[in-house]
Structure formats: C-alpha cells, structure tokens
Amino acid sequence: MSDIAVVTVKGMRRWESGHPWIYRSDVSERPNMPPGVVQVRDNRKRPLGWALWSPRSEISLRLLDSDPGATINEAWWQGRIQDAFARRVGLDSVTNAYRLVHGEGDALPSLVVDRYDRWAVVQMMSAGLEAFRDAIVEAIVHVTRVDGILARNDVPLRSKEGLPRETVLLHGDVPHEIEVDEYGIRYIAAPWTGQKTGAFLDQRDSRHRAGEVARGTALDCFSYHGSFALHLARNADTVIALDSSAHALERAKQNATLNGFDNIEFVEANAFDFLREREREGVTYDTIVLDPPAFAKTRSSLPAALRGYKDINLRAMRLLSPNGILYTASCSFHLGKALFLEMLESAAADSGRQIMLREIRGQSIDHPEILTIPETGYIKGALLQAVD
C-alpha cells in the first residue's frame, strides 16, 4: 500500500500560505491506505511534509509537520501537546477549566482537548486523527497527569469522516459533574451531557470583563446556565437571567445558589419577544449582555442570521439607560469580524442613540486564533456604551 499523497499546485500553495487543509479535489494521487498519517509530495514528487489522511472526508489532508524528516510517533504527539500546555501557563491562577488544545490553533488539526480540574475531555474530529487515539491519550496523561479522559466524540462532523458518534471513557474515570472556578465565580460543568465538552469556555475572559463593568439593573439574554449572569451579579444591583429553556435555567439557579447570589431573577422567555415587549413598555437596563447561539450555521443562512443579529442588537441599544453598557457577541463562524461590526454600525444608526465602541473582543486566550486559518477564530464580541 502507498503511504504517499501527491497534491496539485493549488494544494501546495494552500499549505505554503499557512492553511493546513488540502481538499479532495487537490489530491492528484490518493494514498491506497486506511486513515492515518501520510507523506505529502508536490506535483514534482518533492516531499512537503506529513499530514493526517481521511479517505472519506472532503478535507482529505490536514498538515501535521512540514518537516519531511519528522516521525509522527508517541514522542511527536507528546511534544506538540506539551507545547500547547506551555502556552497556557498562568491560566490556572484564574480558572481550573480551560482549553488545552484548540485544534489547528495549536498545530494539532481536528483535535480538541478541554481540561476541567483533574480531568480532560477530548474531541477527535477526523479519521486520520482517530488512528492515533492511544498515542494522544498517553500524551495527554503524560503532560497533564489528569485522573481521567472522556471522549465527547458526538459531533456531527465525525459522520462525514465515516466515524461513529459516541461518548466514551478513554482513561481513568470522569465524573458527570465538575465544579469550575472562573475568576472566583463557580459553576457546574457537565462533561458527559453538557454543550460542547461540558461548558462554554471560550467566553471566559469576556464574562469576567462584563462583570467588571456591570452596574445597576442588568439583563443577560440567552443566559443558558447563567455564566454571564453570575459575573454580572457581583457588581449589578439586580440581574435578569433570560433563556427559552426551563431546563437550562434550573442549572442556572443551582449555579447562583453555589455562589450565594440572591440578586438574580430567572425568566423563561424568547429573547426576541422579551426585548420587543420591554421596548414597548419603555423599560431600560444599565447593563445588557447578548450572547446568542450561532444564528448562521451555514453560509446560506447568513442573510437571515444578519437580520436576527441586527434585530436583537437594535432593541438592546434602545433599552440601554443613559451611559448603559452592552456586551454583544456572535459565535457564528460565517459572520466575520467585518460583517459583525458593520451589523452593529447599522443597528446603532437605526437605534437613534449615540453608541460608543469601547472594546473589540474575541475568544479567550486558550482558544488561539491563527491569522491564516480563519476557522480557528469564530467569536466576535464588542463592548458598547450608550453615551447619550
């Protein structure tokens, strides 16, 4: 069997420009082997490096190492994971839960590793990567000394790779609930059943920042388990945690109790309807957070998503008290930074308010964004203030 892939000039240039993916259409000679690692060569058969090989995926090759002399073995995985771990030094002073490996952002394509206290949760999202499951688990244990590793391999992307969707224990034991400490705010993560790997870690720094500037009457829309509301409650007089899911709000109430907060009101409602009704009533808020789920899950849904984003931001701007603060975000990858800011500009123009842009924010530092790999960056955030 051949363990060599030959790519077109277009594929080679994609790698040279700093993006690790080569699509099926740019593989001129396909390896005759199961998923794993292959040597990649250009159209003149010159070696370019090593890549993960996924025969059934549209993304056929994911660059691992541009050194043709590299050996992709247990020591290689341990070295890369150690490098990622070193970039997180100091994070344990503010939290016990953070992303240890952010896929392509840490030169470990299709691999996510989130640490929750003494445990780790992984996602392996390509067939080529799955071939190295044992080596990756051993490397994580060696670098982090965690007590257990859970695979949350239940993401839809695995189906496109020909892989089963499953949640399975890979090492030791992992509890169903883990207490997270985030800048002194505590909440419960659910690694077996929660969103993503058990909690949303990518907005940690913006939650903390929103809590720092919060005051007066605060409103946290799309609150889910109350992560933003908990931070707001430190400095705001009262907080409304708003979500359409009664089940999510039950967990939010538990988190509030865990922190001893009694100034949070939990409201089950549709955020769009709630904002419209409050606008009609002339209600205002000193602090508002908009952290909705992804409205644009595909490129084709972007126009409708933009209308939704503009609608909630326009109404939130109108609901701000004088000098009121709005933190707003989008986690839709297909809504880029430029479009996000353009949407906010349009909403501000239609709001009839003077809206100041105080900060442009992104995802937490343990979710590194590589400039030549746009897929590594998906969160756009802005801290705004009504100055009229």
Structure, described:
The chain is of the alpha/beta class. The protein has three domains: 4-65, PUA domain (Archaeosine Trna-guanine Transglycosylase, Chain: A, domain 4, Roll), CATH 2.30.130; 74-178, RNA methyltransferase domain (HRMD) like (Transcription Regulator spoIIAA); 202-386, Rossmann fold, CATH 3.40.50. 29% of the residues lie in helices and 30% in strands. The protein has helices spanning 9-16, 74-86, 127-130, 133-144, 157-160, 204-213, 227-232, 246-259, 271-281, 302-318, 337-351; strands spanning 4-7, 21-23, 27-29, 36-41, 47-53, 59-65, 97-102, 111-116, 119-124, 148-153, 166-172, 178-182, 185-189, 217-221, 238-243, 264-268, 285-290, 320-330, 355-361, 380-386. The strands form four sheets. The protein has a seven-stranded mixed β-sheet, sandwiched between helices. The protein has a six-stranded mixed β-sheet with strand order 2-6-5-4-1-3. The protein has a five-stranded mixed β-sheet with strand order 7-8-9-10-11. Helix 2 (74-86) crosses helix 4. It is globular. The termini are far apart. The model has no long low-confidence stretch (mean pLDDT 96).
